[in-house]
């Protein structure tokens, strides 16, 4: 698909703003981004991130991730209640003792371990973990799979926390890489082997295979269209679709890729991909074993100082959207396959944003995070007896992301626009 120069220059403007943002609360990311110039093109911003790994240098001792000793692989006891779910990164960490093997951890444990094992920026890890604790947990801890007695429905909660497997349209969404669409298959976390095989076969030569962002963006476009073609209830939500969906793709290369002096931003070959996705066998005989995601032997994470932060992630989100503008269309099928209808952003936001300005300045980031700010109070009203404490945490996390953007004020968000999409039932974010 070709993209217009208008979109590209709008994106370039957006990127320059995004990259320049200094975060107050998450100083970790701020330090990394403060040097950014304000006149960068999208390509320049991306190049800067890409080159950071090389600039920082490869340190095998610091980047080696142990899968030995206390970090040796231990398969989960799924029958005994250990939780595993739609996220292969979190599953692998729990299988190697970087997270508790029961699949339940606190916000701090998630932030520390995603940084330690994958080099996830503390801003990104913090935001994802706090959101998880509110939406899928008890405000302090949550399950990487489904509900569990380790996160009981007690102490000021109005129901039983459902874990990330039970967070459809709030966190987990449609058109994931290897996991099924919930309303099409009845679950959202069991690998569909043909989906994995489609990705795997996009780099058929084992000697040269590298599942990089180009490959993953093509794969995502194909998966997006498959959901339109096959899932009458496909829904591409403002948060679950516009922001979580790209993460599910970019994380594959950004985090799973094996870093080295030669390839500081990583190379992701067939064996490493299969290991992290708990797949064995060759292309004609691929087999998925639930919950056996493994950190490969002799594997190296992102460089220290080259963490994958929110601004870095946003450049990847925009680069993918520049190639495939459909990724940003919020909407869904209307109850039959191939009926995708986008909502008008103007109607959704009472005129504050529109399709054209969404790609200008920081509008996309403003739109997505302000939508969350607007959605979450209602969302957690149904979950916590006294939501003000948990809400404060998320509000401050969101503010520290958006404060430097100078966002237009989004006072209203008309969620009734989603009524025509049967796949958006329940509360969507
Ligand atoms: C606290 C941090 C994290 C949270 C809260 C989180 C949460 C999630 C959720 C809710 C999904 C389902 C999204 C969907 O519907 O497609 C998901 C998928 C995914 N996550 Fe994570 N995740 C985290 C960290 C990581 C890390 C460190 C990796 C590193 C590899 C990772 C890799 C992935 C991938 C590749 C998928 C897509 C799986 C597929 O459908 O094939 N995540 N994650
Ligand atoms: C990662 O790259 C290094 C350097 O090229 C190599 O020695 C190591 O075997 C690779 N690890 C994996 C899991 O492919």
From TrEMBL:
<keyword id="KW-0479">Metal-binding</keyword>
<dbReference type="InterPro" id="IPR036851">
    <property type="entry name" value="Chloroperoxidase-like_sf"/>
</dbReference>
<keyword id="KW-0560">Oxidoreductase</keyword>
<dbReference type="GO" id="GO:0046872">
    <property type="term" value="F:metal ion binding"/>
</dbReference>
<protein>
    <submittedName>
        <fullName>Chloroperoxidase</fullName>
    </submittedName>
</protein>
<dbReference type="InterPro" id="IPR000028">
    <property type="entry name" value="Chloroperoxidase"/>
</dbReference>
<comment type="similarity">
    <text>Belongs to the chloroperoxidase family.</text>
</comment>
<keyword id="KW-0408">Iron</keyword>
<dbReference type="Pfam" id="PF01328">
    <property type="entry name" value="Peroxidase_2"/>
</dbReference>
<keyword id="KW-0349">Heme</keyword>
<feature type="signal peptide">
    <location>
        <begin position="1"/>
        <end position="20"/>
    </location>
</feature>
<feature type="domain" description="Heme haloperoxidase family profile">
    <location>
        <begin position="69"/>
        <end position="319"/>
    </location>
</feature>
<keyword id="KW-0575">Peroxidase</keyword>
<dbReference type="GO" id="GO:0004601">
    <property type="term" value="F:peroxidase activity"/>
</dbReference>
<keyword id="KW-0732">Signal</keyword>
């Amino acid at each position: 698909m070709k993209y217009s120069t208008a979109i590209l220059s709008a994106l370039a403007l957006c990127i320059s703003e995004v990259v320049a943002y200094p975060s107050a609360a998450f100083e970790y990311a701020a330090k990394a981004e403060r040097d950014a110039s304000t006149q960068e093109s999208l390509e320049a911003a991306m190049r800067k991130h890409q080159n950071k790994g090389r600039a920082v240098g490869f340190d095998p001792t610091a980047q080696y991730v142990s899968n030995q000793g206390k970090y040796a692989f231990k398969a989960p006891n799924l029958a005994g209640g250990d939780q595993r779910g739609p996220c292969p990164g979190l599953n692998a960490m729990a299988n190697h003792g970087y997270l508790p093997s029961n699949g339940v951890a606190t916000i701090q444990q998630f932030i520390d371990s995603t940084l330690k094992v994958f080099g996830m920026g503390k801003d990104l890890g913090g935001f994802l973990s706090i959101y998880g604790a509110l939406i899928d947990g008890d405000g302090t801890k949550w399950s990487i799979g489904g509900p569990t007695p380790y996160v009981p429905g007690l102490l000021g909660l109005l129901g039983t926390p459902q874990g990330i497997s039970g967070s459809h349209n709030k966190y987990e969404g449609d058109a994931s890489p290897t996991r099924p669409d919930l309303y099409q298959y009845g679950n959202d976390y069991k690998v569909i082997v043909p989906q994995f095989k489609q990705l795997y076969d996009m780099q058929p030569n084992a000697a040269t295979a590298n599942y990089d962002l180009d490959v993953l963006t093509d794969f995502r476009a194909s998966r997006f269209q498959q959901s339109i073609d096959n899932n009458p209830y496909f829904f591409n939500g403002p948060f679950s679709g516009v922001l979580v969906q790209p993460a599910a793709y970019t994380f594959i290369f950004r985090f799973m890729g094996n870093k080295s002096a030669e390839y500081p931003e990583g190379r992701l070959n067939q064996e490493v991909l299969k290991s992290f996705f708990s797949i064995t066998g060759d292309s004609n005989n691929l087999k998925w074993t639930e919950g056996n995601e493994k950190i490969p032997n002799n594997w190296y994470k992102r460089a220290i100082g080259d963490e994958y932060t929110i601004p870095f992630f946003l450049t990847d989100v925009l680069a993918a959207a520049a190639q495939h503008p459909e990724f940003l269309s919020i909407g869904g099928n209307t109850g039959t396959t191939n009926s995708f209808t986008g909502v008008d952003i103007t109607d959704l936001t009472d005129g504050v944003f529109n399709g054209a300005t969404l790609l200008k300045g920081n509008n996309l980031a403003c739109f997505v995070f302000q939508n969350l700010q607007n959605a979450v109070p209602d969302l957690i009203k149904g979950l916590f007896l006294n939501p003000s404490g948990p809400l404060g945490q998320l509000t401050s996390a969101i503010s520290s992301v958006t404060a430097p953007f100078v966002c237009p004020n989004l006072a209203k968000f008309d969620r009734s626009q989603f009524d025509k999409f049967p796949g958006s039932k329940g509360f969507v974010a």
